[in-house]
């Protein structure tokens, strides 16, 4: 069963975020807390949203997403930040159901796209996405400012 996440799902979502980070060999990078997730997902003015996949009433997967915008199309889109299903529940349709639900949300709301990034080495995920009809956007390279580089960019020295 796929449904919108509730505030009560936050501990399970964070648990799955940590599992995803472990899978992506970056567990040490997870700094998020339950309070942060609860506030960002369910606070007064949320800018990020989540769906969960349940198996026998237990959360076994999640998708966290936010709105993007295309100036060329003049429409919003969905940017999928994270999609994760516990390994023992993969192959049972939960990942596909989560993506199907996001596609339905996008289509119902008139959004122009659903997009995400995938690590180059994650062949199982790449195969899964291609099987759904998703195509890589190889002509684009993702850049990111974070940590000290973000601080330096935000506060250039005036000298």
What does this structure look like?
The chain has 5 helices and 5 strands, in the order E-H-H-E-E-E-H-E-H-H. It has helices spanning 10-23, 34-42, 94-109, 123-131, 147-154, and strands at residues 2-4, 49-55, 58-70, 75-85, 114-116. It has a 5-stranded mixed sheet with strand order 1-2-3-4-5, sandwiched between helices. Strand 3 and strand 4 form a beta hairpin. The protein is globular and about 55 Å long.
Layout of strands and helices, then pairs:
Layout: E1 2-4, H1 10-23, H2 34-42, E2 49-55, E3 58-70, E4 75-85, H3 94-109, E5 114-116, H4 123-131, H5 147-154
Tags for this model:
single chain, alpha+beta, five-stranded mixed beta sheet
Tell me briefly what this model is.
By secondary structure, the chain is of the alpha+beta class. The chain is 35% helix and 23% strand.
Share of β-strand residues = 15-25%
Label the structural class: alpha+beta
Mean pLDDT: 94
Distance between the termini: 58 Å
Seen as an oligomer or otherwise, the chain set is: single chain
Low-confidence stretches: none
The dominant shape is globular
